[in-house]
Amino acid sequence: MDIYIKKAILHAFDPGNPEILFSPALMELTPVMLDYVTKKVEKIYSDEAKRGILSADNQFLNLITDDFLASTKAVANFWREAFVLSENQKQNDLLFVSYEIDTQPHFAFVRLSLRDSFSHAFDHSNGQIKIAKTESSLPGAGTAADEAIAINCATYAYHLIEKRIKYNGKSYHYISENLLCEQPEISVNKAIKAIKKTAESVAKSFDDDDFAFSQKVQNTVFHAVEKQENLSPEHLADQLFSDNLTAKLAFKDQVKEAIPNQIRFEQMPMDKIEKKLSNQKLSLSNGIEMSVPQTLYEDAESVEFIQNNDGTYSIIIKNIEEIKNKW
């Protein structure tokens, strides 16, 4: 996914001040800052992101206009009205970015929670190297966003990373509930976990929940991700419970409660998702743990799983050319 950054600006929120400190000018996008901003935007397109499509009359969407600077101020003030209710507030910088993906205009808002950091400092008076504490430092470029929303201004589709805030003893997803007034789809990561949990629960009710079935679930999802196919409850049910109509119907009904629609992989970090699913991780009752690549797991010439007459299992690993000891 190629992201073309056009504009960026940073505003500051201090819970001790009644108003946001607005920057009067756009950020100078030096190569270092351009890299930082680009990586922060890329982190929004994560398998942890919730997704959805805003309606044309959505109150949050209507704050975003062709005037980028005015839009950032409007969104920042709107965000502050909800966030100031939270307990244990901290200093935050508010990063706003105007960018393009495949020539389509996008708008991103990223909350950057400031934190203390430490670095070394050279004392020229005595030649010592000391540890210096730096307050209110920005998070590194490679860290995930504390909270963020990225909106496609052409289609109104959005990606959302959000956290709960506490107010009056209750927790709220304040961005989706108060700012967007939307119920987004659950993240791809949570959807995959829900599929696995539901499939294993249904299989257990039919006495078919051994390790082989658990690996079958992961294998089915892995190949869908590998081909970048959308995952639907119907397709999964056919793959996992093809010979059991009752189990198939039960699985579809239960999955649709958590995932009403098919799982889409548009604008997702497919390499990272695929990497999470690429190894079958086995924990054996004798204390041995194994990590088997999917390609070898399905190859009987490499790994063979045998169920013995007494109900125990044997695993045969074949055609090994070299064994290394890893510490």
From TrEMBL:
This is Nucleoid-associated bacterial family protein. It holds the Pfam family NA37. GO terms for cellular component: nucleoid. It comes from the Bacteria.
